[in-house]
Design a protein that fits this description.
The structure holds two protein chains of two kinds.
Chain A lengths: L45 H10 L7 H17 L7 H7 L5 H15 L3 H14 L5 H12 L7 H11 L5 H17 L1 H7 L2 H7 L5 H14 L10 H9 L8 H6 L10 H11 L8 H18 L14 H22 L2 H17 L19 H13 L6 H11 L5 H16 L7 H13 L5 H17 L4 H4 L3 H7 L3 H13 L7 H10 L7 H17 L1 H17 L4 H16 L13 H9 L4 H5 L41 H7 L46 E7 L7 H10 L3 E7 L3 E9 L5 E9 L4 E9 L5 H19 L2
Helix pairs in contact in A: 2-4, 3-4, 4-5, 4-6, 5-6, 6-7, 6-8, 7-8, 8-9, 8-11, 10-11, 14-15, 15-16, 16-17, 17-18, 18-20, 19-20, 20-21, 20-22, 21-22, 22-25, 24-25, 25-27, 27-28, 27-29, 28-29, 33-34
Chain B lengths: L3 E5 L5 E6 L10 H9 L2 H13 L5 H16 L7 E4 L2 E8 L2 E7 L5 H19 L5 H6 L1 H11 E2 L2 E2 L4 H7 L13 H9 L15 E14 L5 E15 L5 E6 L2 H7 L13 E4 L5 H7 L2 E3 L4 E10 L7 E10 L3 E10 L6 E10 L4 E8 L3 E5 L4 E10 L3 E10 L13 E8 L8 E7 L7 E15 L2
Parallel strand pairs in B: 8-23
Antiparallel strand pairs in B: 1-2, 1-5, 3-4, 4-5, 6-7, 8-9, 9-13, 10-12, 10-22, 11-13, 14-15, 15-20, 16-19, 16-21, 17-20, 18-19, 21-23
Classes of the chains: A mainly alpha, B alpha+beta.
């Protein structure tokens, strides 16, 4: 909650101001008007002086003088001087028409409320009174101050003005009120539940002012975090999307963040939403662009055809659609990376990286955009070089490799290493086309001899080692300089890699055993366990290639390593090899490949959050209480997959008035049908878009005064084939489905319909599969009170349902 | 949502902090102690002074912030703009020597947070001047808190448009405007066109358009162009009465092709991609590529664009480097200005790198001033005015000191800085700007073009 107010480290009274070596700044420094600096040294009694000043406040006529007095008080407060003694005087000053003064008094209040709850309580009345002020600005400010006091005992005072503010004529007050609700929620959850603001908030999604709507979405998302965020249905989503051009650059994000949770009713609607959002990609706000990308990808996910789906064979698959999305967003993303500030470029590069992983190949032709600029900060350079490796294809690989080799000699060590590694990764993934592997291997071999830059030669050795694992046939290319390189590579990781290579290339290097023998003889001088382990592995490998030469030295090495107690791992390994060799089994070892596809999929779900930047799941860096798992809206849709949908109007293309806020809620076309989301009380018809055909939402389920009619074990000839078929045939009788499902032994339907008189019927139907039978529970609600007439209606209903289900 | 915003000065002291939520305060003190123990003593002084000045912090929160400061100021690697300490993420950016930091404990959209921080700095610039610094921040403490509260409520960005904020927060450099009626005021604060208020009046109606381009070039040592690209932006300064509707046109290839019937016009420029200020009607742009908008009052950035093809490079550089043994090296450089002789480039600075062990240099140059600057390890050649189509030469003979351990010279690229007024490297030019207003007043329009070097580099 907002209130630990100003914390500054202004010079503390009595102590020297920081950075001036104890000498106070000379008065009247040039460029610093004297009357501007309130932070001069204070003496005791200044607070009393202030009190004197405040007493004259009421009689003071000059507005600026008044403001100056207030500023002085606030300045003292930010210095950390306790001016809470002035509370009463400040309270008197609250009665003013000057907003600036008023704001400062509120600031003062919020700052001392927590430490002086009794005093704060005194001023509540004034604040509540200000909430009814004629000036909307004052109402808003007072409300914000009231909600920011952070005193649980004040809840009873706040809830009433809050409720009133939600109906205020001015959007500024409403928007502040909505945020106030959230503050109240965090202050006292029980009181909040009692006040039941939820339904009002859902209603306010229709507010004509976009900033109010934005706050409503944000607040609902946070309040409903436990149930996966704000309840969402088609009507709400379409309503918001139709107004999306009215939202401010930050407000638009709240709507865009909802889209990934929405499941389009059918393919056509999905594409309509994408078209509607397309212009957002041209905004200069990077946040909005990335949010749009996420929305697109999620729609592609929902709309695309999956393997095993029995839909039209011509419709595009999920992967195709995602590729199309990435193709579309490539240009805007690249522009933003090229023209944004460093911080944003860094963030966007991470997103680009993830998209490249998702759809390899699409960014390839833009590889020049990822060339490192001399002026880029290091972290951007690193990200770019890592991405460059992923953009290699047979056409681009030569350019990329030569660019990378330019980078290995830079001053930045890490940069050199990453460049070498990236180069190797092109070879390992074999993305460079024919001959690339050999040419990269040659370059890496040349780097082994770069004595001037030890970290590069070491990294080259490590890269070669991984390269050999992937492409064993290149051993002939690289073998020659290995024994020589072993002499001058000093870094342990490089040394270990070289020793490994010597073992692997034992066939083509004549002197390999003798080089290794020297290392074994100086075993005592090796400090790094990695090198020791590599030595052991290499010697064993070499033993299988050239047993007569290696046998003796292997024996010696095994003795040394089993005696070595510095590393448990090494010791165990040596014993393992020893026993393995004694029983002489087949020396092939399984190679495990690191597979992170699962992580990538998980990260894709959290696109446009910090997850991408840190490259780990939210659970790993967000505390449990802050972890929000947004869920998709419930998947039932009132529309059949291939039915017609109410078109989404794209405002703004031709209709200027629409775009600039004159559009009222009633301009929004009513969607064909409405269901309310089951995530919260079913009573709320979110937008009240009743349709002539459908009843205006299902009636309350909790109503029990009408008695239920239960019909069990009706004989049926067949069982229904699928829930969809039944739903559509029920739909023709104007009986609507709330939920349905198939279990191994039975089908279940929850239905509702409306009679002419306005009454409702709630129906639960359970159809057994074998033997085919039907059990119905029908609950009438409202409408005609004549029992016989009602009974007649119910009988008719039963007949209708029976026909739909299988007769 | 953002839990806290703070502003730190260069020493890592907290100048301003505004806590929007209290979840950043629950932290173990351990992380702090470990961090401090690992760092050196000069830092401990800093923490002490910070500790003294941040008495108002709740204990845990303070610990948190300090460990961030440790990371920021003491890690030798350039830290990334996002740091995660104890499950709290710190996102930060710089203005002069101040750090603007946002703290959050939830899984936010990082781009949003950065956009907010930038917007915040933009707002402060509008209030305190382009180059606002520590002391101006301190002198306007109340104003800054007012802005902090108005732009963000409970961790969510609220109203960040400068023009609207100006209406009801008029401290600082911003001149108080005629106070509008409360009715109109709140409409403005929350209205759809939050970038312009109604009832603006000017005696003379004027629009200034600046087309600013920066050329990025990278040429390999063999003379191939590795990358050439122009990023441009169109900046406007509007002084217009009322709520005028503007229509703006560049020589965009797609538009020109549509308009020209025969082969009478020059081909337009192929703009690869562009983004716009939020006042531009994007739907209309997508439909027929016209740029229409109701402009904000005063300065703003209308659009940014990127052009990759057919870049007119303003300068051509032909370097030749010869290393003769270990003690001598000679560099020859020819620079040709590739733009029309009517124009000229200003502030041309060419930095030719030389090896670190250079002891003597003999420089011959046709014009401008060239000098060996050891601290930059480069010959810096400055030319104040470089006429179009001109050619000039630089030849340098270097004597190198022998070093104990010879290390190959890494040969950094030659770097060029320049400005060419009234020239666009992409070829973009403004075709028209029409202003429609009910009163039908006359508008004066002024257009300027400047091309600057972004990263203009030639490898040797």
């Amino acid at each position: 909650m907002a209130s630990t107010y100003p914390n500054t480290n202004m010079p503390v009274p009595g102590g020297p101001p920081p950075g001036t070596n104890g000498i106070p700044p000379p008065p009247g420094q040039p460029g610093q008007p004297r009357d501007e600096s309130y932070f001069t040294e204070s003496r005791k009694g200044e607070v009393n002086e202030l009190r004197q000043l405040l007493r004259t406040f009421g009689t003071e006529k000059d507005r600026n003088r008044k403001r100056d007095i207030m500023k002085k008080v606030i300045a003292y407060m930010t210095l950390g001087i306790d001016v809470s003694r002035l509370f009463t005087e400040m309270m008197l000053a609250i009665e003013t028409r000057d907003l600036v003064v008023k704001k400062m008094v509120y600031l003062f209040l919020c700052n001392y409320a927590e430490t002086h709850p009794d005093l704060a309580q005194m001023c509540t009345n004034t604040l509540v009174k200000d909430c009814g002020n004629e000036d909307p600005m004052v109402r808003g400010l007072a409300l914000r101050a009231l909600c920011s006091l952070r005193l649980p005992q004040m809840i009873e005072y706040t809830s009433e003005p809050l409720r009133k503010s939600l109906q205020d004529g001015h959007a500024y007050v409403r928007k502040t009120g909505v945020m106030g609700i959230l503050k109240m929620y965090h202050l006292n959850k029980e009181e909040f539940d009692k006040a039941s603001f939820n339904d009002i908030l859902y209603d306010m999604l229709r507010d004509p002012d976009s900033s109010v709507v934005t706050n409503c979405i944000l607040v609902l998302n946070e309040i409903m975090a436990d149930s996966g965020g704000m309840a969402l249905n088609r009507a709400v989503m379409l309503h918001l999307l139709n107004r999306i051009h009215e939202f401010s650059e930050f407000g638009i994000l709240s709507v865009l963040d909802l889209v990934p949770r929405y499941i389009p009713a059918n393919d056509e609607e999905g594409f309509q939403i994408m078209n509607l959002l397309d212009p957002v990609l041209r905004t200069a706000n990077a946040g909005a662009v990335v949010a749009t990308i996420r929305a697109f990808l999620s729609i592609a996910d929902a709309v695309g055809k999956r393997p095993g789906d029995d839909r039209d064979p011509d419709s595009p698959t999920v992967d195709d659609l995602k590729r199309q999305v990435v193709v579309r967003i490539k240009a805007p993303l690249v522009t933003l990376i090229a023209s944004s500030s460093n911080e944003l470029s860094y963030v966007l590069l991470k997103y680009a990286d993830q998209l490249i992983d998702l759809c390899p190949g699409i960014f390839d032709d833009e590889y020049r955009q990822f060339y490192v600029r001399f002026s880029d900060p290091t972290h951007i350079k690193h990200s770019k070089v890592r991405i460059l490796a992923k953009l290699a294809n047979p056409q681009t690989a030569p350019d990329i490799v030569s660019e990378l080799s330019e980078l290995i000699a830079t001053v930045d060590d890490t940069m050199g290493r990453i460049a070498v590694r990236s180069m190797a990764s092109i070879a390992i993934h074999d993305s460079g086309g024919e001959g690339a592997v050999e040419s990269i291997a040659r370059r890496l071999v040349e780097m082994l001899d770069l004595q001037g830059i030890p970290h590069v030669s070491s990294e080259a050795a490590v890269s070669l080692a991984s390269l050999v694992r992937r492409h064993p046939n290149i051993t002939t290319v690289i073998s020659a300089p290995l024994p020589r390189a072993l002499k001058y590579i000093t870094e342990p990781s490089g040394k270990a890699a070289l020793i490994f290579l010597l073992g692997e290339c034992g066939d083509s290097i004549v002197e390999a055993p003798y080089v290794l023998e020297k290392v074994i003889d100086s075993y005592e001088n090796i400090t790094d366990t990695g090198v020791k382990t590599a030595l052991l592995g290499a010697t064993v490998a070499l033993f299988f290639k050239r047993p007569p030469e290696v046998q003796l030295m292997l024996g010696r090495l095994l003795k040394k390593t089993t005696d070595d107690v510095s590393s448990q791992d090494l010791h165990d390994r040596a014993l393992f090899y020893y026993r393995l060799l004694r029983s002489s089994p087949d020396p092939t070892l399984a190679k495990a490949i690191d597979d992170d596809s699962e992580l990538r999929a998980a990260l894709m779900n959290e696109f446009n959050t910090l997850c991408t930047i840190y490259r780990c799941r939210a659970e790993n860096f967000i505390d449990e209480e802050n972890l929000v798992k947004f869920v998709k809206m419930p998947p039932e849709h009132p529309l059949p997959r291939d039915g017609n949908v109410a078109p989404i109007v794209d405002p703004g293309v031709n209709n200027l008035a629409d775009q600039f806020g004159n559009a009222s809620v009633t301009d929004v076309p009513a969607p064909a049908a409405v269901i309310s989301a089951p995530a919260y009380s079913a009573e709320v018809d979110l937008l009240g878009f009743g349709d002539d055909l459908a009843p205006s939402g299902p009636p309350p389920l909790s109503d029990t005064n009408a008695e239920a009619v239960v019909v069990s074990a009706l004989q049926m000839r067949t069982t229904p084939t699928s829930t969809d078929a039944v739903e559509s045939s029920l739909g023709t009788f104007h009986i609507f489905t709330m939920a349905s499902g198939e279990l191994p032994t039975e089908f279940k339907f929850f239905l509702y319909c409306q009679e002419e008189g306005g009454g409702y019927f709630l129906i639960q139907a359970v159809a057994q599969k074998a033997p085919p039978s039907l059990a119905l529970t029908i609950k009438p609600h409202g409408g005609d009170n004549d029992r016989n007439k009602r009974r007649e209606m119910i009988d008719q209903l039963i007949e209708l349902i029976k026909t739909s289900l299988g007769e | 949502m953002i839990s806290m915003i703070m502003v730190l000065n260069q020493k890592g002291e907290i100048m301003i902090s505004r806590q929007y939520r209290d979840d950043v305060s629950r932290v173990a003190a351990d992380s702090f102690r470990i961090q401090v123990r690992d760092s050196d003593t000069c830092f401990q002084y800093e923490t002490c002074s910070t500790a003294r000045h941040s008495r108002l912090f709740t204990k845990g929160c303070f610990v948190f912030v300090v460990s961030f400061i440790v990371c920021l100021f003491l890690t030798e690697l350039a830290p990334t703009p996002l740091l995660s300490i104890e499950n709290c993420s710190f996102l930060y950016t710089r203005h002069l020597n101040m750090y603007f930091v946002a703290l959050t404990k939830s899984n936010v959209n990082p781009a949003l947070v950065f956009e907010y921080l930038f917007q915040k700095i933009r707002v402060l610039k509008a209030y305190l001047g382009e180059e606002f610094d520590e002391s101006s921040m301190r002198n306007n403490m109340t104003l800054i808190y007012e802005l902090m509260d108005e732009t963000m409520d409970f961790g969510y960005p609220q109203n960040c448009a400068v023009d609207v904020l100006r209406l009801y927060i008029n401290l600082g450099n911003v001149k108080p405007q005629d106070e509008p009626e409360p009715e109109q005021l709140t409409k403005q604060i929350t209205g759809a066109i939050d970038w312009r208020r109604e009832g603006i009046r000017y005696k003379k109606n004027e629009v200034y358009i600046d087309v600013l381009e920066s050329v990025n070039l990278l040429i390999s040592s063999s003379g191939n162009i590795l990358r050439s690209e122009v990023t441009g932006k169109v900046q406007m300064n509007t002084k217009l009465t009322g709520m005028p509707e503007c229509k703006f046109g560049l020589n965009d290839k797609l538009v020109i092709e549509k308009e020209s019937t025969g082969a009478r016009k020059k081909p337009g420029v192929e703009i690869d991609d562009c983004t716009f200020h939020r006042c531009v009607r994007l739907g209309k742009f997508d439909a027929d590529r016209t740029i229409t908008f109701i402009p904000p009052d005063g300065e703003f950035e209308l659009m940014r664009y990127r052009v990759n093809d057919n870049v007119n490079l303003p300068f051509r550089l032909i370097p030749a480097v010869q290393e003769e043994g270990q003690t001598k090296c000679s560099i020859n450089l020819k620079v040709i200005a590739n733009f029309s002789e009517k124009l000229f480039a200003t502030h041309v600075v060419i930095k030719v790198p030389v090896p670190k062990n250079t002891s003597k240099s003999k420089i011959k140059n046709s014009f401008g001033r060239a000098k060996y600057e050891p601290e930059q390890n480069a010959i810096v050649w400055r030319i104040k005015r470089f006429p179009g189509k001109a050619e000039c030469m630089l030849s340098v003979d270097l004597e190198l000191v022998r070093t104990v351990r010879p290390k190959a010279w890494v040969r950094p690229p030659i770097n060029v800085e320049f400005q060419v007024p009234m020239f666009t490297a992409s070829g973009v030019h403004v075709r028209f700007l029409r202003v429609y207003d009910k009163s039908g007043y006359h508008t004066n329009r002024w257009v300027r073009y400047i091309t600057k070097a972004g990263g203009y580099q030639v490898r040797i």
